[in-house]
Specification:
Elements (H helix, E strand, L loop, with lengths): L1 H24 L20 H12 L4 H8 L1 H8 L15 H13 L5 E3 L11 H14 L2 H8 L27 H10 L7 E3 L2 H12 L9 H4 L15 H9 L10 H7 L8 H11 L1 H22 L3 H29 L5 H10 L5 H15 L5 H5 L6 H12 L3 H9 L4 H12 L1 H17 L2 H6 L8 H9 L4 H28 L8
């Protein structure tokens, strides 16, 4: 018995561990989603949290990060594997921290851009979520937003913030209601969302692009002692600065810039962007860990609950599937048990033989039949083909056969009709096996993807699993794991509620 229990415990661990790993991966992001540690490193390692913050703020753009932290540091900050070394960034003293936040507050709208944007290969962003919440409060509905912006959106999740290209020469925002709302929204953002647009940064980006990321190719009179592009210092009036001014410096920054405002605020040198971000992470470590732990799950819930009718469709489909199977199968099994015929054995064999064919084999004939009946894109198409189950009928018949005949004879003597004996004798004695049948019907309906997608191709009829599949096609690994974790929870909850009834009927009379 001890050996048996050890085997069962080992088997349970092999089932629980992958689920825990799925939960853990759902808490991660682009920088650590390939890390197979069960406990995410950022929950205990401050530098890992700093990596996630920087990667998120600059949308994983290595060139933007390199201009602030340097080429070597940018690789370590956004690498998808654990870094070989920790990037050392100084933190600001309290007075300098306050001075920098005062400087951020003083910036004009065109002297900073908003961080935490969407990026290619990623799904969702903090900026988009806040912007969509802002529009939801201001307009109330997607239709109102569409009328105001002359756009076409089905849900708020598809509305993206306007593009900002202040550092691009001759770029001007498109005037209108959307840009006006965007400017009002920007003022509500926390200060750490702001990324100052400096002349120094544009100067470095200009020569990085011109010399294709090779600092050694920069002429010595321009490079000076710089070992990295983030160390290039613009010398106003020099040949290099005149070249940059003529080809890349927007007119809006010729008379005012964030660099000048930092000096006016009492700062020295360039604005300490890296130092401020390091200080912010250290000061808000606990809050950031909570936020990043739940972010993927929040995004998935927002996507599922507000995108189409996935939850309602799935709930109704599961209810109808369970209800039909608990009506059709017990009636068929009871009839075969109470009124046996010469063909009963052959009927059961026919029902069990149907299980030999994979569901994929019958999918196309079912589709053609439902099409001819005009039932595609309806709940009838989802429910009717699975209303009867050969195995469930066989199981229930064995259970009904094992019930004492004396009970039915007594009922008949007391004048009970067959329907009353079925409802008051057979069904109450069959609760354990009915619970197993209901759980199987729920699991089958809830997990149905391919069949549900084939017979209900209208998006308004898509179930939760179809939406999760669509999400996997464009979401990163961590978000996909969060979606799968949340999708698995209803099955676990249903089993926990039904386990007491199921365990009472582990040894089914029909299978003794």
């Amino acid at each position: 018995m001890a050996a048996l229990y050890l085997v069962l415990i080992a088997g349970s661990i092999t089932m629980v561990y992958p689920f825990l790993m799925m939960i853990s991966t759902g808490m991660k992001g682009p920088t650590d989603q390939n890390d197979n540690r069960l406990v995410p490193a950022f929950l205990s390692d401050e530098f890992e949290m700093f990596r996630k913050f920087v990667d998120d703020k600059y949308s994983g753009n290595p060139e933007r990060i390199a201009l602030i932290y340097g080429d070597a540091a940018s690789f370590q900050l956004i690498s998808t594997s654990p870094p070989d070394e920790v990037v050392q960034v100084n933190v600001l003293a309290d007075s300098e921290y306050v001075r920098y936040e005062t400087f951020l507050k003083s910036l004009a709208p065109d002297e900073w851009e908003a961080g935490f944007r969407d990026a290619q290969g990623r799904w969702g962003s903090r900026l988009s979520s806040l912007y969509q919440d802002f529009l939801r409060k201001q307009y109330g509905s997607v239709d109102a937003v569409n009328r105001a912006y002359l756009e076409q959106h089905v849900v708020f999740q598809t509305i993206q913030p306007p593009v900002e290209r202040f550092e691009v020469n001759r770029w001007e925002p498109k005037p209108g209601a959307k840009w006006s709302d965007w400017l009002r929204f920007r003022e509500t953002l926390p200060l750490y969302f702001r990324i100052p647009i400096t002349v120094r940064g544009m100067y470095q980006a200009f020569f990085r692009s011109k010399y294709k990321n090779r600092i050694q190719a920069v002429p010595s009179d321009v490079r000076g002692n710089a070992m990295d592009f983030c160390d290039l210092e613009p010398a106003i009036g020099s040949r290099a600065f005149r070249e940059f001014e003529a080809g890349a410096l927007p007119d809006r920054y010729r008379f005012h810039s964030a660099d000048e405002k930092w000096l006016e605020a009492g700062g020295t040198g360039a604005p300490p962007i890296a130092e401020y971000e390091s200080s912010f992470v250290r000061r808000n470590l606990a809050e950031l860990r909570r936020d990043y732990s739940a972010r993927n799950y929040d995004q998935v819930l927002d996507y599922v609950l507000l995108h189409g009718r996935a939850v309602w469709n799935t709930a109704l489909f599961c209810f109808l599937a369970v209800a039909t199977q608990l009506i059709v199968n017990p009636l068929a099994a009871y009839a075969l048990s109470r009124y046996p015929m010469k063909m009963t054995g052959k009927i059961l064999l026919f029902l069990l033989a149907a299980m030999a064919f994979p569901a994929e084999v019958t999918m196309i004939p079912s589709f053609l039949l439902l099409r001819d009946l005009g039932l595609l894109n309806t709940f009838a198409a989802l429910v009717l083909p699975t209303a009867a189950s050969g195995y469930t009928i066989y199981l229930l018949k064995g259970f009904f056969d094992s019930q004492p005949r004396e009970l039915f004879e007594s009922g008949a003597m007391d004048g009970a009709k067959e329907w009353q004996m079925f409802r008051k004798i057979a069904i109450p004695l069959s609760k354990p096996v009915l619970a197993v049948a209901a759980l199987g019907a729920f699991a089958g309906a809830y997990g149905a993807f391919m069949y549900a997608f084939v017979v209900a191709q209208d998006q308004r009829m898509w179930t939760l699993m179809v939406w999760v599949y669509q999400l996997q096609a464009r979401a990163p690994k961590a978000t996909t794991m969060a979606a799968l974790t949340l999708a698995a929870l209803p099955t676990v909850v249903v089993f926990l509620f039904a386990q007491r009834v199921i365990l009472r009927g582990i040894i089914l009379p029909g299978e003794k």
